[in-house]
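A reminder from the course coordinator: this example appears on the midterm review sheet, so study it carefully.

Given structure:
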């Protein structure tokens, strides 16, 4: 049997990371600042998702170490549930990033258009615009790479989820087969039990018949 305290601590860590990740995703949805702010939020949420993934893997390893099939089955069902939460967070994060990037890009284009008017255009403005454009491009590329890594992690999480689901299904089939075997064994035992009672009754009747025959023979010879 597994240590319930250890499992409870791991589950609390998973839930804590999940809630913090969801809060940061909401911050990204509402983000109206710069790409730098978006990068900071993404860095924080990446740490939370990494912590969540590590805790899920720890729980999965604990499940696979169980000797008792029922304990393994129950823990793997919990692991499957947490993998789905993790995948949902990654999907929500990508969606929030795309929405925020589109808004930031729109704001930057409007700002660039306003600052590029002939009357306001100066050498300093041109240098500032060029520097800002370069910074935006670099940040967008960094976010693109980060999102590519998250896609890869999602694929790995999906693969793990499929494996966990397969194991849970196989364990369920084993339980079903074991249940059928137990039911058949019970039927056989009941059948043998009834036969044993019948045999005892027959033996008693045969004994009574034997003594009746003996008594009859003795009676005939004596009288």
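Designed residues:
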């Amino acid at each position: 049997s597994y240590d319930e305290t250890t499992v409870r601590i791991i589950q609390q860590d998973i839930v804590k990371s999940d809630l913090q990740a969801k809060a940061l995703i909401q911050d990204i949805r509402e983000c109206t600042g710069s790409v730098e702010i978006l990068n900071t939020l993404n860095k924080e949420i990446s740490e939370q998702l990494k912590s969540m993934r590590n805790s899920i893997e720890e729980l999965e390893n604990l499940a696979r170490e169980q000797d008792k099939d029922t304990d393994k089955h129950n823990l793997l069902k919990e692991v499957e549930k947490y993998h789905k939460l993790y995948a949902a967070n990654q999907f929500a994060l990508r969606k929030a990033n795309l929405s925020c990037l589109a808004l930031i890009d729109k704001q930057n284009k409007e700002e660039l258009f306003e600052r590029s008017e002939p009357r306001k255009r100066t050498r300093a403005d041109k240098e500032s615009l060029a520097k800002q454009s370069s910074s935006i491009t670099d940040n967008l590329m960094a976010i693109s790479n980060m999102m590519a890594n998250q896609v890869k992690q999602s694929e790995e999480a999906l693969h793990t989820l499929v494996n966990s689901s397969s194991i849970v299904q196989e364990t369920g089939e084993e339980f079903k087969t074991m249940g059928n075997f137990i039911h058949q064994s019970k039927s056989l035992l009941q059948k043998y039990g009834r036969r044993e009672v019948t045999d005892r009754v027959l033996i008693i009747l045969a004994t009574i018949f034997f003594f009746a025959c003996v008594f009859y023979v003795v009676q005939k010879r004596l009288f």
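Residues 189-222 form one domain. The mean pLDDT is 76.
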